[in-house]
Amino acid sequence: DTGVSQDPRHKITKRGQNVTFRCDPISEHNRLYWYRQTLGQGPEFLTYFQNEAQLEKSRLLSDRFSAERPKGSFSTLEIQRTEQGDSAMYLCASRTTSGSRSGELFFGEGSRLTVL
Amino acid sequence: GDSVTQMEGPVTLSEEAFLTINCTYTATGYPSLFWYVQYPGEGLQLLLKATKADDKGSNKGFEATYRKETTSFHLEKGSVQVSDSAVYFCALFYSSASKIIFGSGTRLSIRP
């Protein structure tokens, strides 16, 4: 169990640029989640995958956001034409759907986005 | 819709003090309840959980009891340490919905 890893840890970009974040989940976990967290708030659900299938997207996820998990392993979250309001911590988490720990999300350390 | 409400922080206590962080929830069904903790510079990690009414979750000296009648899941610790300084998140989870809903978090600072 090497944990959930995210890259990059911090991204500073100018408004209008595109950014992409990568998440590598725990290898045996079939579900992968993206959350967004702003200062003083709890994580807000964005989307999740069951293997390579994207099963749910939040209304928070505008058309500028797209997420993929092409082979059911790592995932990417791309934000196009970034806006200052996109500045936040983007969290990835994964979990298994079987066993006693099936409800437990394991989080990465997050990717902090700053849009200037 | 389903939601979680936590007491606002920051909460500042002296070492060895008794801690309570209140959490109440609104749910249409019977969710599992969690407390997650986020230490400075680290990702969220599960602190404890309870899957049904009257269950008590416990870990690292922290406890919380799933109270269906009051829709609460308050976090308690009898004697806090400086190392407990962190942000604590209450959350609910439905396996059928498959996502976790978080409260806004409570920042805890412990003075030596």
Topology:
The complex is a heterodimer of chains A (116) and B (112).
Chain A: E1 5-7, E2 10-13, E3 19-24, E4 31-37, E5 44-50, E6 53-57, E7 65-68, E8 75-79, E9 88-95, E10 106-107, E11 111-115
Parallel strand pairs in A: 2-11
Antiparallel strand pairs in A: 1-3, 3-8, 4-5, 4-9, 5-6, 7-8, 9-10, 9-11
Chain B: E1 3-6, E2 11-14, E3 19-21, E4 23-26, E5 32-38, E6 45-50, E7 56-59, E8 62-65, E9 75-77, E10 86-93, E11 100-102, E12 106-111
Parallel strand pairs in B: 2-12
Antiparallel strand pairs in B: 1-4, 3-9, 5-6, 5-10, 7-8, 8-9, 10-11, 10-12
Task: Walk me through the structure.
The complex is a heterodimer of chains A (116) and B (112). By secondary structure, chain A is mostly beta strands. Chain A has strands at 5-7, 10-13, 19-24, 31-37, 44-50, 53-57, 65-68, 75-79, 88-95, 106-107, 111-115. Chain B is 0% helix and 50% strand. Chain B has strands at residues 3-6, 11-14, 19-21, 23-26, 32-38, 45-50, 56-59, 62-65, 75-77, 86-93, 100-102, 106-111. In chain B, the strands form three sheets. In chain B, strands 2, 5, 6, 10, 11 and 12 form a six-stranded mixed β-sheet that branches. In chain B, strand 7 and strand 8 form a beta hairpin. The interface between A and B is medium-sized, with 23 and 24 residues.
